[in-house]
Amino acid sequence: LRYLVAVATVLALATILLRRSSSTQEFHTLSSKAPLCLPLSSLPTFTMVTQLSQDRLWMMEHHCERFPHPISIAVWTNESLHEIENQLISLKCNLDLVRVQVLDASDMAFDDYPVNHLRNLALEQVETTHIVFIDVDFWTSEGLYDVLTNQTVTSALIENKNIALVIPAFQLFRQCTQWVDCRENNLPFMPFSLDELLDMLRNKRGHIFDPTNRGGHGSTLYKEWLLQEEGTLLEIPCLKSNRYEPFIVVRYCRDLPPFQEAFSGYGKNKMSWMMQLVRSGYTLSQLGGAFLVHYPHLDSQSRQRWNEAPDQLKVFRADDTEHLSPLVRKPNATDSGFDLKAFKRGQVDEIFVRFRRWLQEYVPDESKLKGCDDHQDDDSKLWVDRAE
Asked: Beta strand 46-53 with 130-133: parallel, antiparallel or unpaired?
């Protein structure tokens, strides 16, 4: 009997380990190539981390000018590392400060951009204690590095390895009426200083990011930020949405969750990372005196694929007589005759449901941030398994 009990116990343990192993192959808990999260013995240092495709390499000229400090980028391209580095030199980037990784794009679908794989590649080149995580179409403000290195900020970062500093994000509207990248019109109005940002807002050339996706940045306290002194920190006490996906400054060490590479193309690639940070016990404070501004580029091919939907879900505005830019409504119980998982949005939602299940099962809940009283019902926005 004892023998049978022992065998049953071993088999049960083996089943658990096998299930855990197979489950964790798709998603991961730690940044395995990062250094250990030891107490800091010196002041924090910072590297900007971002990723981009070949067609947005031109933006690096502005990043190198605005942030003349360590930068780590991963580029999805058909060109060689040497060719990309030469282009960066022509864009006036200092290769002593800019580390470059390239990922061959020749054997991958151009509308399924491997965004999180690229982010992890860029992270692997970081040699500083902290990262400034942005997307390449969000440009930094004047004096960001000075703000990060003042005593209030550095003390907070030294004392708490699990604090993430939110950089509030804004957006410039396209400064032309045609659906083109009118760079010559846009660039003069991309704010760099606080005065330029305020001028953009007063003259309604831009807005906080993103009015079409309230969950994405809605937990940032924008009104309070406008009165916040430079270099001060203001705690974000609760989240209005699980879809919150701010750009942050955070410690780069092994406990930092990696970007889940199951997410590619457009959709849920940042919010899933932030959900894991929050569940792992990270807190959020917004940074006074610093901001990001989104450049008004055209939709990427990944975004265009995300926008595809069954005809039954497309809603056209009354003034859109040519049916060029439909809105997409949520599916409901009465919809039929199409397979939501045949579309990118449905496929991403399916991955997200698996990720959420994995997160709840394998990442202990150490959350310090809870939902606000007016927290959105994020599950209602899913295309698949909304009731799960």
From this structure: parallel
Residue 318 has φ and ψ, to the nearest 5°, of -60, -30
Place of tokens 């003042």: 150
* 91-125: burial string, b at 16+ Cβ within 10 Å, e else: bebeeeebbbbbeebeeeeebebbbbbbbbbbbbb
Helix axes 271-279, 344-362, angle to 10 degrees: 10
Adjacent-strand bridge partners of 172: 206
Classified as helix, coil or strand, 123 is helix
Enter the tokens of residue 198.
């305020």
Sequence-separated (6 or more) residues with CB below 8 Å from residue 242: 215, 271, 275, 371, 376, 378
Rounded distance, CA 192 to CA 194, Å? 7
Q: Provide the Cα torsion 151, 153, 159, 164; round to 10°.
A: -170
Q: Which residue has the tokens 């997160």?
A: 359
pLDDT string in tens for the chain (388-residue length): 555 545 444 444 444 344 444 444 899 999 999 999 999 999 999 999 999 999 999 999 999 999 999 999 999 999 999 999 999 999 999 999 999 999 999 876 656 889 999 999 999 999 999 999 999 999 999 999 999 999 999 999 999 999 999 999 999 999 998 888 899 999 999 999 999 999 999 999 999 998 878 888 899 999 999 999 999 999 999 999 999 999 999 999 999 999 999 998 877 889 999 999 999 999 999 999 999 999 997 766 666 665 656 766 777 766 555 555 567 777 776 766 676 666 777 788 899 999 999 999 999 999 999 999 988 877 777 767 654 4
Whether the bond into 210 is cis, omega within 30 of 0:
yes
The pTM of this model reads 0.86
What sign does the CA torsion over 19, 24, 29, 31 have? positive
Residue at token pair 């907070």:
156
DSSP assignment letter at 384? S
The Cα 241–Cα 268 span in angstroms is: 13
- Please state, in angstroms and as integers, the Cα–Cα distance from residue 190 to each residue in 115, 136, 185, 247, 302, following that order: 25, 14, 10, 18, 24
